[in-house]
Design goal:
This protein is an alpha+beta fold. It is built from 4 helices and 10 strands. It folds into 2 domains: about 70 residues; about 120 residues, no CATH class. The strands form 2 sheets. Strands 2-4-5-9-6 form a 5-stranded mixed β-barrel. A two-stranded antiparallel sheet has the order 1-10. Helix 1 runs antiparallel to helix 4. The protein is elongated and about 85 Å long. The N and C termini lie close together (about 10 Å).
């Protein structure tokens, strides 16, 4: 006997499929929007990194998204009354140590935080030999965002320890007690020094901005889920019916 296709899905399967497909498509579109934003920021970073260095303090007043990752070559002076800052528990080439930060004044009086380099930690009683350069010095590096603060695990994360003569040890750069000791809050952009100085052993690299490829892959994944859901809906509800 001949068979004829019979497609009569139940109401609950139609509603469930519509909900899932709509959800998957919306998630895919959201990832495409994220991909476009990431790609735009990545392209800005790539363009800035290959541009000539900014040499005037006034150039640093531009919009942060335009000068992000831009090289700089400036004359600066370290603030003598601000201790060097040791950011604890920083891994560099597989070794635990401190990222060292300082505060400088530019020629126009603007204040900037500088990521000066990295030093090994040793045990907790070992005090790194760090000193602030004196006088006007040449500072070469790139502009980028400060390190992400991460998750705050209790009040201990905000403790600021005074060690040595002119050193502060912190777990986070946004600790309220640390910010109270600085002449200005740490800005949206800081200068990552190109070469270590003042006792630091290695440079500190800022986090790069990824391009949109990962988000585009996630979008493809969500759109695939939507397509598979539709195919399963049709397959499971498409039945053969025997004709008379």
């Amino acid at each position: 006997m001949p068979f004829h296709p019979h497609f009569r899905p139940r109401a609950w399967s139609i509603v469930g499929t519509l909900i899932l497909v709509t959800l998957f498509v919306r998630l895919g579109l959201w990832q495409l929007d994220r991909a476009a934003l990431k790609q735009e920021r990545h392209d800005l970073m790539a363009g800035a990194s290959s541009a000539p260095p900014l040499t005037n303090a006034s150039d640093l007043r531009g919009a942060s998204d335009l000068i992000y990752w831009h090289p700089v070559d400036l004359q600066v002076t370290y603030l003598a009354n601000v201790p060097a800052i040791l950011l604890d528990n920083q891994v560099n080439q597989g070794q635990v140590g401190y990222d060292v930060f300082g505060v400088v004044r530019l020629a126009d009086g603007a204040i900037f935080t500088v990521a000066r380099g990295w030093v090994p930690a040793g045990d907790r009683t070992t005090i790194p030999s760090i000193h602030n350069p004196t006088g006007s010095i040449r500072l070469q590096g790139i502009l980028a965002h400060p390190p992400a603060p991460g998750i705050r695990l209790g009040a201990a994360a905000d403790v600021v320890e005074s060690i040595g003569l002119d050193l502060l040890r912190v777990q986070r750069l946004d600790a309220p007690d640390l910010l109270a000791r600085l002449p200005e809050p740490i800005g949206e952009l800081i200068i990552y020094q190109a070469t270590p100085d003042g006792g630091t052993a290695r440079t500190v690299a800022p986090a790069e901005i990824e391009d949109g490829s990962r988000s585009r892959a996630y979008a493809t994944q969500w759109f695939t889920f939507a397509a598979v859901t539709l195919l399963l809906f049709v397959f499971l509800n498409w039945k053969r019916r025997e004709s008379a």
